Amino acid sequence: MEKVLELQGQPRAKAVSSRVDDTLLIRDAQLGNTAAFEQLVRQYDRAVLRLAVHLTGSQEDGQDIFQEAFLRAYINLASFRFECSFYTWIYRIVTNLCLDHLRKRSSRYRDLTTTISSDGEEEQILDRIADQRAGASPERSMASRELRACIVRAMERLSPRERVVFELKHYHGLRLRTVAGILNTSEGTIKNTLFRATHKLRAQLAAVR
C-alpha cells in the first residue's frame, strides 16, 4: 500500500485516452491484484489530490486527505458494488473527508483566484484587483488587500457543505448531477445549496463591487 500512496508524484505510463477500463481494474483489484489498484490510483491521483488541496486550502492537509482517501478506497474496495462509477466513489470519499476537515476547522485561509460576478457567473479576481506592480499607489494596494480579505471572509461564512458544493461546481467545473452523485443526494438539493451559497457570497461582496 505504501507503494500505491507514492504514485502521485510519478509520471503517467499511459495517456488519459488509453486508460484501462475501471470495471476491469476494480474486479482484478477485488481479487487481490494490487497492480490493478495501483493503476486506478494512477488514473485518478492528480484529480483527487487537486480536489483535496483545493477544498482544504492547504497542500499539507490536502496530501493527508489524499492518502486517507485512497487508503479507505483500498480497504473498502471489496464492498464496491458498481452502483456508481469509481470516479464518483473516490470523489465521494475525498469530499466527505474534506467536509469533516472543514467542520473541525471553522475557518481557513487560501489564495482565492475566482469569485462570483453580479450576474452569478464565475469571475477572475485578478480582473478586479487593483494593479500591484511596482509603482502602483499605496491606496490601490490597500484596496486590493481589502478586497481579497472580503472574499476570504465571504467564503468562510458559507457552511462546509455550501462551500464544497460551490467549489465543486465553480472551481472544478462539475455538473450538478455529478455533484449530487458525489454527495449522495438529489440534484434538486444541490441546486438549493448552490443557490444559498451564491446568494450569501453576492450579499457579502455587494459592498465591494
Briefly, what is this?
With 209 residues, the chain is mainly alpha-helical. Helix content is 62%, strand content 3%.
Helix content: 55-70%
**Residue-averaged pLDDT, rounded?**
78
Return residue spans where pLDDT drops below 50 for at least 5 consecutive residues. Answer: 7-18, 107-116, 124-134
Largest sheet entry: 2 strands, antiparallel
Secondary-structure content class:
mainly alpha
**Strands, total number:** 2
What is the global morphology?
elongated
Task: Round the Cα radius of gyration to an integer and report it.
Answer: 19 Å
Task: Tell me the series of helices and strands, N- to C-terminal.
Answer: HHHHHEEHHHH
| Percentage of residues in DSSP E strands | under 5%
| Sheet with the most strands: spatial strand order | 1-2
Distance between the termini: 50 Å
Number of DSSP helices? 9
Q: Which helices and strands occur, and which strands form pairs?
A:
Blueprint: H1 2-5, H2 22-30, H3 34-56, H4 59-76, H5 86-104, E1 114-116, E2 122-124, H6 138-156, H7 160-170, H8 176-182, H9 187-205
Antiparallel strand pairs: 1-2
Helix pairs in contact: 2-3, 3-4, 3-5, 4-5, 6-9, 7-9, 8-9
Summarize the structure in words.
By secondary structure, the protein is an all-alpha fold. Helix content is 62%, strand content 3%. It contains nine helices and two strands; from the N terminus they run αααααββαααα. The chain has a two-stranded antiparallel sheet. α2 crosses α3 (34-56), α6 (138-156) runs antiparallel to α9 (187-205) and α8 crosses α9. Residues 7-18, 107-116 and 124-134 have low confidence and may be disordered.
